[in-house]
Amino acid sequence: MANTYTQCYFHIVFSVKNRGALIRREWKDELEKYVTGIVQNHQHKMLVIGTMPDHVHILIGYNVNKLIPDLVEKIKTSSNTFIKGKRLSKFKFEWQKGYGAFTHSHSQIDLVAKYILSQEERHKKRPFREEYFEILEKNNVQFKDEYVFEFFDDVHGWD
C-alpha cells in the first residue's frame, strides 16, 4: 500500500526448560549466530542478542507482515534441533514453553541494547526471576505466577 510506513521493535525473552544452565560459554556465540540467521531469514532485523546460561534476550526490528509467535516458535524449534544435532549440550536441551515479547520505541533502542548486552554483569547482582518480573511490571503486563516461567534461585552465571 502506498504511503504506509512502519517501524516496530520487539524485545523477546525466553529460557531453557527448567531454567537449566545448559548454554555454555564455549558455544553461545555459535548459537547467537544461528538465531540471528533465523531472525533474518524471517525478514526481521537482528539488533542485539544476549545469551546467558539459562535464558536469551533478543531485540529485533520487527517486520509487521510476520507474526511474533511464528518467529519465536521457529527460533526455539530450529535452535533446539541445531543444539542437539551438533551435540553442543551433554544434557537434554529444550526451551521452556512461553516467552515474553515487549515493544519499544526507536528512542529506547540504545537503552534496551545496552540492557541486553549487560546481562552477565546484572545477573551477578540479581537473579533472572527478579529481572523478568520487573520487565513485566514496567510494561504493565498482568500475569499469574503459575503461568510465568519456572524459576530456580540456584541458577548462576557462566562457569
Please give a structural write-up.
This protein has 159 residues and is of the alpha+beta class. The protein has a single domain, classed as Alpha-Beta Plaits, CATH 3.30.70. It is built from 5 helices and 4 strands, in the order βαββαβααα. The protein has helices spanning 25-41, 68-85, 109-117, 119-122, 128-138; strands at 8-15, 45-51, 55-62, 100-104. A 4-stranded antiparallel beta sheet has the order 2-3-1-4, sandwiched between helices. Strand 2 and strand 3 (55-62) form a beta hairpin. Helix 1 crosses helix 2 (68-85). The chain starts with 7 loop residues before the first strand and ends in a 21-residue tail after the last helix. The mean pLDDT is 85.
Q: Short summary of the structure?
A:
The chain is 37% helix and 18% strand. By secondary structure, the chain is of the alpha+beta class. Helix 1 (25-41) packs across helix 2.
Which helices and strands, and how do they pair?
Blueprint: E1 8-15, H1 25-41, E2 45-51, E3 55-62, H2 68-85, E4 100-104, H3 109-117, H4 119-122, H5 128-138
Antiparallel strand pairs: 1-3, 1-4, 2-3
Helix pairs in contact: 1-2
